Amino acid sequence: MTVETPIRPATRPGLLHRVSGWAMRHAGLALLLWVLVLAAVTAASTVVGNAYKNDNSLPGTDSQRVTDIFEAHQPKGDAASVQLVVRADGGLEADKTRVASMLAVVRELPHVASVADPFTAPGALSTDRRTAYATVSLDVPAVDMPVEDVRTIIQRAQDFAEPGFQVEVGGDLARSAAESSGGASEGAGILAALVILVFLFGSLLAATLPLLTAVFAVGSTVGLLVLASHLFTVPEYTTPVMMLVGLGVGIDYALLIFSRYRHELLKGAADPRVVALDTAGRSVMFAGCTVVIALLGLLALGLGSLQGVALGVTLTVLMTMLAAVTLLPALLTLFGKRIERSVRKHAAKQRRTPGDGWRKLAGVVQRGPWVPLVLGVLALVALSLPALGMRLGFADAGTDDPAKTSRKAYDLLAEGFGPGFNGPLVVVAEGDRTAAQALGQTLAADPGIAAVTPPQVTPDGKVTTVLAFPKSAPQDAATSDLVQRLRDDTLPALESRTGATYLVGGSTAAADDFAAAVSMRLPVFVLVVVGLSALLLMAVFRSVLIPLKAAVLNLLSIGASLGVITLVFQQGWFGAQAGPIEAFVPVMIFAIVFGLSMDYEVFLVSRIHEEWRRTKDAQVAVREGLATTGSVITAAAAIMIVVFGAFLLSPDRMLKQFGLGLATAVLLDALLIRCVIVPAVLRLLGNRAWWLPRGLERVLPRIALEKD
Q: Which helix (H) or strand (E) holds 167?
């Protein structure tokens, strides 16, 4: 007969014991402190405002050198602009008066500095004279242009449209003005998570605790991130990515601790809060550290835009860890009696012993482990194969919703001036006039270029710029091939003749440079993330094979998620707009998914390890470990899937890719890997799964997730 005894703390309680113990002893004060922190950072961030800045610099690349040259030799010109694109089915000559009236109205709108006349501006009228564009120059930088004023420009210009005469507005400001302010994705994810938690616990109060914990953690982090943006370079897209990860991780961490609390409560533990924090709480802290390591691994890439995101999401994970071991224990103390009644009432209604279904699944897998192992690995490999053909790029209006005016303007310009008009290559020459003329002639003779502009000399006379319009669209692979050919063959040969220096820049070139930079530094990134995570797992589970298995399976789940993203967003499956994958999405998904996959690895294997230490029977340990964690892992995964999947509702293509990639990875990881492949592997390894050479045994520090 097993007698439950309270967990005895060590002679000097660890930090987790001291922090969570204080929160339980002073539950009201702990909750009040969280409320005050949330209110304070929210108020401060509202007053101060954000200083988000997108840092797309790529030191050492040709595209960055082009940008640096313009900053050094061109006069500062920070004012923004939009484009008015008009098309007349019968030709624009008959609608000159209408066009002039439209331009006159737009000139009088707020922040409009000037409007070019498409009939007199060089190259603004298509050869068939049915399409033209007018550049609207603004008197403020893009970051200072009010969204409502951009929308006013769009509305007043489109007032002149009529059948046979189309008016659209293009440019980055027009793209952003048409996007919603967000919030629907987060709300839908939280609501779906609440439904899952109610079904799991049978109590609205019990279901609310993990949600409250996550909301407090994420809400506080949003304010802190706004304040941190004044000290560090934080891209503007960090907040939605941070909320995406924070809600999923925050709910999951609180859920896993609460589930262990519920399990110990039904077992009759003297203080289930202490046991839950001493077991699941330790796992949460360790799992959070693996996520932090994976995110900080992005710093090894040395890319400014990703470093800000990594720091922001790392702060989110740290805040969710803190909330899980302070706010949740306080809530369990304050609402303990009511929660205990609801938990016991829900348990009494259950007709089956908890975990029976998972024991049966583990038994089926253990009786024939090779079949599920081989089929599962083949499925992951098959899903990963499309990722080998992934093309990276930056979103432009060509990947927008076809109903948006910015997308319609993009299409009109492509139709009237050629597909490459929306993404010209910026080629600069540092040399004399002869070198500049030779550049223009060489580019004009290239079979992949439709047209080139006359050479433009900077005011100081040191640099010449030529715009080359490809025959292919900016997002086409042919345009990337053209950039590569110019850099590798055409321009080096020209340099040897003229002695000048030629550089290719522009959006397509920048995307290619970003992909090359990531590819060059990716081995270091993977080595840092996988190596440190494997060492941590080795120290915790005193095993060589467990970390090796975890690393291989995590890489397979990441590959499968990237393969699905490629099929949907690059190949256009399920009606998605086909185009390249956002250049920084794969590495961000790698870091986040690797960390989250380690979460499930820790939650499952720590319980299996706990049972193995108790019974020394590998098969029993796997069955009982899966029985006690299977439903929790499934529920946690379901919550993450609905939170991440809700971001498919976002109008932002980047967030859609994040949402689909993370949801797919969690689905495969929780259901296929943790519940099928891992039990099969551990069945084949048997007691050898916990083997550690004596040399490593002596060197590795001990990190205990279970108390002796």
A: strand 165-170
Residue in the block written with tokens 């692979």? 477
Residues 6+ apart with CB under 8 A from 251: 193, 197, 210, 211, 213, 214, 636, 639, 640, 643
Matching residue, tokens 């003749």: 497
Burial class (CB in 10 A: 0-12, 13-18, 19+), 501: middle
pTM score: 0.83
| Residue predicted with more confidence, 446 or 632 | 446
Q: pLDDT at residue 516 above 90?
A: no
Give the mean model confidence (pLDDT) for residues 219-225. 92
Token digits of residue 410: 């993009």
CA-to-CA distance for 702 and 249, rounded, in angstroms?
A: 26
All domains in the chain, ordered by first residue: 15-48+185-348 (1.20.1640.10), 79-180 (3.30.70.1430), 368-401+514-701 (1.20.1640.10)
How far is 627 from 621, CA to CA, in rounded Å? 10
Beta pairing class for 392-393 and 581-582:
parallel
Amino acid present at 448: G
Task: Give the torsion sign (CA, 647, 648, 651, 654).
Answer: positive
For residues 490-508, average pLDDT = 89
**DSSP per-residue codes, 582-651:** ETTHHHHHHHHHHHHHHHHHHHHHHHHHHHHHHH--HHHHHHHHHHHHHHHHHHHHHHHHHHHHGGGGSS
Half-sphere exposure of 259 (CA within 13 A, CB side): 24
Dist CA 536 CA 282 (whole Å): 13
Calpha distance 355→360 (Å, rounded): 9
Show Cβ contacts of residue 150 under 8 Å, excluding neighbours closer than 6 positions. Answer: 82, 173, 174, 176, 177
Identify whether the C-beta of residue 281 lies closer than 8 Å to the C-beta of residue 585: no
Strand partners, 581: 392
Expressed in angstroms, the distance from the first to the final Cα of the chain is 19
CA 500 to chain centre: 41
Name the phi and psi angles at 287, rounded to 5: -60, -40
Task: Tell which residue, 533, 583, 589, has the closest CA to residue 560.
Answer: 589
pLDDT at 567: 96
Residue 180: predicted pLDDT? 47
Return mean pLDDT, the chain.
84
Structure tokens that stand for 264 in this block: 């110990």
Closest CA to 138 of 147, 130, 129: 147
Confidence category of residue 350, pLDDT binned at 50, 70, 90: low
Q: What is the pLDDT of residues 518-573, one digit of tens each?
A: 878 778 888 888 888 888 888 888 889 999 998 899 899 999 999 999 999 999 89
Check if the beta carbon of residue 605 is closer than 8 Å to that of residue 427: no
Q: What is the pLDDT of residue 499?
A: 87
How many other β-carbons are positioned within 10 Å of the β-carbon of residue 539? 19
Higher pLDDT among residues 588 and 106, named by residue: 106
Q: How far apart are CA 460 and CA 538, in angstroms?
A: 61
Query: Sign of the CA dihedral 113, 115, 120, 126?
Result: positive
CA atoms within 13 A on the CB side of 197: 29
- The Cα–Cα gap between 257 and 358 comes to 20
Give bridge partners of residue 457 from the DSSP assignment.
Answer: 464
Structural tokens at position 283: 């796992």
- What is the rounded distance in angstroms from the CA atom of residue 60 to the CA atom of residue 125? 38
In whole angstroms, what is the distance from residue 498 CA to residue 592 CA?
49
Nearest-CA neighbor of 611 among 687, 672, 543?
687
Our measurement of the distance from residue 7's CA atom to the centroid of its chain's CA atoms, rounded to an integer in Å, reads 40
Contact 255, 234 (CB under 8 A): no
pLDDT (tens digit, 9 = 90+) per residue, 675-700?
A: 899 999 998 998 888 888 888 888 88
